[in-house]
Structure formats: structure tokens, C-alpha cells
Amino acid sequence: MLVRESVLVLNQDYQAIGVCSAERAFILVVLQKAEMLSHHPMKKLRSVNKDYKFPSIIRLYRYVHFPYKRVNLSRHNVFKRDNNRCVYCGSKDALTIDHVHPKSLGGRDSWDNLVTACQKCNSQKGSLTPEQAGLSLQYEPFRPSFVMFLSSFNGQVRDDWKPYLYMS
After folding, report:
1. Model confidence over 96-114: pLDDT tens digits?
2. What span, in angstroms and rounded, lies between the C-alpha atoms of 45 and 134?
3. Which residue stretches of the chain are H helix?
4. Are residues 12 and 56 in the same domain?
């Protein structure tokens, strides 16, 4: 029953709080910790004796409190925000992290100062600003929202997820 399909997990108040595997979602439903709100009509989970609906969205029966619903600043999350592409040339090869405003000039580690860059562009830029190095950003870096990361978890937003992801 090993499945590589993601399932949207909603809190008791129908707010999106994460994603999990179809296997994990099925276990939560069977253990009566969650209810299945939506399932894939063309897919089934099968045991030796029985077929079960394949979950797409589940809702937890108990409310789970999250003090902060924001995306942590990390190397992995910067790459994810920038779609694993250099923000200067669009390359997907030899990626690294670059400070738009260099650390040597007082630049900090923040969402609006860190970007994904290929080694070639990063070397060309060095300890200069993009303008000084003759490079331009394809877009301004930004702090991604929690919903943006949930919706991009599997590349595209499934239609049945949309009402729950864009509620707030």
C-alpha cells in the first residue's frame, strides 16, 4: 500500500495546516482522528479483501494549535521559492544562495535579501550589488506565504484543494 500521493490536511476549523501521504491520511481516518472530505474518484486503496476510497482532503476532528503559520527561512525554502532557478539568468545548474545586498556591505540573512543563484552569476556578482555587477533580478525576493508553500507542494494545486487553500 505504499503510495506517493499527497493529501491536504485541514484543521478542525477547515484551515489548511499541511499535507501528508495518502497512507498516513488513510490511517488517520481509520483511527477516527480525521474525516475524509474529498477523495479521488478514479483511485482506490486496496487491501487483500476490500477496496477503500483514496483520500484527497482530510479534516482533523481535534483542533491543533499552531502559534505561527509562516515559512521558515532556510536554504531549501529559498530554492523552493525561486523554483530552483537562478534569479539572474534562469539556469538550473550549480545553484547556490546569494545575498542581493552583500554581507560585506551589511546585508542580512532575510527573505528579501537571499536568492537562488548559479555559481557563474554568483561569482560574477561577487561582493557587489546586482546593479554594480551588471546583473538584474528577474523579480524582487519576497517572504512566501504558508499557503503558497502548501499549494506548490506537489507542483500544482488540485481543483478540490483550491477552496481550502484560498479561504483566508
Report:
1. 999 999 999 999 999 999 9
2. 55
3. 22-30, 75-81, 119-125, 130-133, 146-151, 162-165
4. yes
* Span 35-68, pLDDT tens digits: 999 998 889 888 899 989 999 999 999 999 877 6
Count CA within 13 A, CB hemisphere, residue 111.
11
CB 6 within 8 A of CB 153: yes
Chain centroid offset of residue 166 CA: 15
Q: What's at 37, amino acid-wise?
A: L
Condensed to tens digits (0 to 9), the pLDDT of residues 151-164 reads: 665 556 678 887 88
The alpha carbon torsion through 89, 95, 97, 101 (nearest 10 deg) reads -20
Any domain includes 139: no
Cβ neighbours of residue 27 under 8 Å, at least 6 residues apart?
Answer: none
Look up the CATH number of the domain holding residue 116: 1.10.30.50
Residue 115 scores a pLDDT above 70? yes
Q: Which amino acid is residue 104, in one-letter code?
A: S
Q: Residue 118 belongs to what domain range?
A: 75-133
**Distance of alpha carbon 37 from alpha carbon 75, whole angstroms:** 34
